[in-house]
Amino acid sequence: MVLNGFLNCSKDFRSRRIILASICVGLGTLIATSGVWAKTSFTIDPQASSIRGSIRYTLIGLYQARFTEFSGTIDYDEKNIEQSQVQLTIETASLKSEFSRLDRIVVSPRLLDARRYPVITFKSHSISRQGDHLWAEGNVVLHGVKREFGFPFFLQGPFKDTKGNSYLLAKGRMMIRRKDFAVIWNKILDQGGLIVGDHVNVDWKVTAREKNLR
Fold this sequence. Notes:
Blueprint: H1 2-34, E1 40-44, E2 50-57, E3 61-67, E4 70-76, E5 85-91, E6 95-96, H2 100-107, E7 119-130, E8 133-142, E9 145-160, E10 166-177, E11 199-210
């Protein structure tokens, strides 16, 4: 009887260990799927997107240009937007406007210095809801200077295209003070932004498509 009791206890102990292990595995799977796997990765489509900037320039009134080469991703968590992330990389030398001579000056060592600083980047570390829009906080690296930066934006989707692939639409406007990133037009004349404005307005619209397209 003692032996039978011992065997029964051993079986009961093993059964409890199996049940406990199953619960742990189940919880682990639930955490994984609700955290990491809940995000869907979308890639920015440059052909269906635009990044445009403008700044006051006394000689022509308003200098308006666009970047033609950029890439990025949106890791989107539909149920928990705060867990979403955004990354963007812009090729500095891809700046284009109707004033090609000015474009060459802007990307030259006098201003953006595209050879030394070939890319402009943004990487978010938080996204939050604020009324009818979202707010992204992260780090911008521009002209070799890294600064904390935040801006509002609107996000729509995900939608389905004719092939059943998901995509997002996002747009926003940001204002960048160029001197915060050591972009100086002229050390003597660049006092108070008399010739060139101090702030660059950036308007952007992006279409981001889900990875692993059909």
